[in-house]
């Protein structure tokens, strides 16, 4: 009772209990129906066989008793001792058409007449016994001739089938009711255990939705509920990690916005009040321009991220000159290369321009982000290479000699806001550039691969389908 007092009925518990009870009820009803049919047939079969054997034995006994000079009363007394199944015995003289004597239990309600005995004695010899009905009650009737006494028959009448069958049905009903009661309490307890785990998960999910990502749901088992708990814990962990990266992103963006804005504000003020001599105006205007470009790049990254989240990140693929796109990207980034003193090499093994299928603007964005990443994490004077290879596809490699990445960081570099431990010390970068690169190449159905050795450098590789050489030709198509 203490267990039941702790059980709280909720909607899931009620549904589970109701479902199981209905299933138990239907299954028990089917069991009763099927078993009744089978048991009834079995009782009929065995009852007929037993009746015929017993009647034949009694007929042999009566014949021997009469031959030995037993009195009618002595035979009756012996038959009374034999009656253990509420069976009536009749010794019938078919010649005189009369009952010589009978042994009838007090519970016997059936009083057969002479015509009934005639039917019993005239049954086919192939049958072991006969099932006769009187006033809606089934009776087993069997007859056997007394040896050496012409016309003398022993007839047995018993309501064996009905009591046995009713007794079996009663026991089966008791078992079914007991099963239903036990099933009710068992499913009540089990469903409460299941719903308790679900309630814990619901409560944890609510706390996670409110920003508490430290929730840990006990797994408890390896079933579907255990898998759900593991998934919820994984979601909590991932959201916690994402939330931490978001906070880091906000901190980085705040710093990236504040630093250049502070510089721009200070230099503009100095230019206005004449603190800076006119001969140095161009120098500080160049600094202001550089800081403005930094702000534009940051804003563009944030806009691209918002576009991806809104599902509006469109890619329009067509044939374009990949080599020319790389040249154009390098030209636009030349001031950054000079500032970082990075040496670039461009290697087209075919010796001529390579044409590919894709969105040239988006691919230029990929190249810009990858090169920007290489510039930021490569020391001045070290070489950065961009290589074009033509196989069955157009393959582009960007190789730097920068700080490199640890093996455990390789799978996370595509996550938003992620920055490696060494990258955190860098002033530039928000941690979303590589995630945008991954999104663009995914839209091109192109896989980007990365190889890196800590302290030695990193290589990014991606590929695009080849196109015919002359992109201006309308017939240009994928090879």
Structure description:
By secondary structure, the chain is an alpha+beta fold. The chain is 53% helix and 16% strand. The protein has eleven helices and twelve strands. It has helices at 2-6, 11-67, 72-82, 114-121, 161-209, 224-273, 281-309, 322-332, 334-340, 360-376, 433-443; strands at residues 88-93, 98-103, 130-134, 137-145, 152-158, 318-321, 343-348, 355-358, 383-390, 393-399, 449-453, 457-465. The strands form three sheets. The chain has a five-stranded antiparallel beta sheet with strand order 2-1-5-4-3, sandwiched between helices. A hairpin with a 6-residue loop joins strand 4 and strand 5 (152-158). Helix 5 runs parallel beside helix 6 and helix 6 packs antiparallel against helix 7. The longest helix has 57 residues, at 11-67. The two termini are 78 Å apart. Residues 1-6 and 471-479 have low confidence and may be disordered.
* Structural class by secondary-structure content: alpha+beta
User: Per DSSP, what share of the residues sits in E-state strands of 2 or more residues?
Assistant: 15-25%
Strand order across the largest sheet? 2-1-5-4-3
Element-by-element helix/strand order: HHHEEHEEEHHHEHHEEHEEHEE
Give the fraction of residues assigned to helices: 40-55%
Which secondary structure elements does this structure contain, and how are they paired or packed?
Blueprint: H1 2-6, H2 11-67, H3 72-82, E1 88-93, E2 98-103, H4 114-121, E3 130-134, E4 137-145, E5 152-158, H5 161-209, H6 224-273, H7 281-309, E6 318-321, H8 322-332, H9 334-340, E7 343-348, E8 355-358, H10 360-376, E9 383-390, E10 393-399, H11 433-443, E11 449-453, E12 457-465
Parallel strand pairs: 7-9
Antiparallel strand pairs: 1-2, 1-5, 3-4, 4-5, 6-8, 9-10, 10-12, 11-12
Helix pairs in contact: 2-5, 5-6, 6-7, 8-10, 10-11
């Amino acid at each position: 009772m203490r267990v039941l007092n702790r059980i709280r009925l909720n909607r899931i518990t009620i549904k589970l209990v109701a479902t199981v009870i209905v299933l138990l009820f239907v299954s028990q009803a089917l069991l009763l129906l099927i078993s009744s049919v089978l048991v009834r047939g079995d009782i009929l079969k065995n009852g007929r066989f037993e009746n015929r054997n017993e009647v034949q034995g009694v007929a042999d006994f009566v014949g021997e008793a009469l031959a030995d000079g037993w009195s009618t009363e002595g035979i009756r007394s012996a038959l009374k001792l034999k009656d253990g199944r509420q069976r009536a015995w009749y010794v019938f003289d078919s010649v005189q058409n009369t009952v010589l004597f009978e042994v009838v239990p007090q519970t016997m309600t059936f009083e057969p007449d002479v015509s009934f005995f005639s039917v019993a004695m005239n049954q086919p010899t192939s049958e072991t016994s006969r099932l006769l009905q009187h006033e809606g009650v089934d009776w087993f009737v069997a007859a056997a001739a007394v040896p050496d006494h012409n016309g003398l028959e022993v007839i047995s009448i018993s309501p064996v089938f009905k009591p046995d069958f009713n007794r079996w049905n009663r026991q089966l009903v008791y078992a079914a009711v007991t099963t239903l009661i036990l099933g009710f309490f068992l499913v009540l307890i089990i469903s409460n255990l299941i719903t308790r785990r679900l309630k814990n998960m619901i409560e944890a999910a609510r706390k996670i939705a409110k920003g508490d990502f430290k929730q840990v749901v006990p797994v408890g088992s390896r079933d579907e509920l255990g898998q759900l708990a593991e998934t919820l814990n994984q979601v909590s962990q991932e959201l916690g990690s994402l939330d931490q990266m978001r906070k880091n992103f906000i901190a980085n963006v705040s710093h990236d916005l504040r630093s250049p804005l502070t510089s721009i504000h200070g230099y503009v003020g100095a230019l206005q009040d004449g603190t800076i001599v006119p001969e140095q105006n161009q120098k500080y205007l160049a600094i202001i321009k550089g800081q403005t470009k930094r702000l534009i790049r940051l804003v563009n990254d944030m806009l691209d991220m918002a576009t991806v989240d809104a599902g509006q990140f469109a890619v329009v693929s067509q044939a374009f000159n990949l080599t020319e796109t790389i040249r154009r990207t390098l030209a636009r980034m030349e001031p950054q290369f000079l500032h970082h003193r990075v040496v670039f090499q461009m290697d087209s093994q075919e010796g001529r321009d390579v044409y590919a299928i894709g969105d040239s603007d988006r691919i230029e964005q990929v190249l810009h982000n990858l090169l920007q990443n290489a510039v930021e994490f490569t020391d001045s004077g070290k070489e950065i290479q961009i290589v074009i290879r033509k196989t069955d596809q157009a393959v582009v490699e960007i190789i730097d000699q920068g700080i490199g990445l640890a093996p455990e960081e390789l799978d996370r570099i595509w996550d938003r806001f992620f920055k490696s431990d060494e990258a955190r010390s860098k002033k530039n970068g928000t941690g979303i550039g590589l995630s945008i690169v991954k999104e663009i190449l995914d839209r091109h159905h192109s896989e980007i691969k990365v190889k890196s050795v800590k302290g030695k450098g990193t290589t990014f590789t991606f590929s695009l389908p080849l196109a015919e050489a002359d992109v201006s030709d309308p017939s240009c198509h994928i090879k």
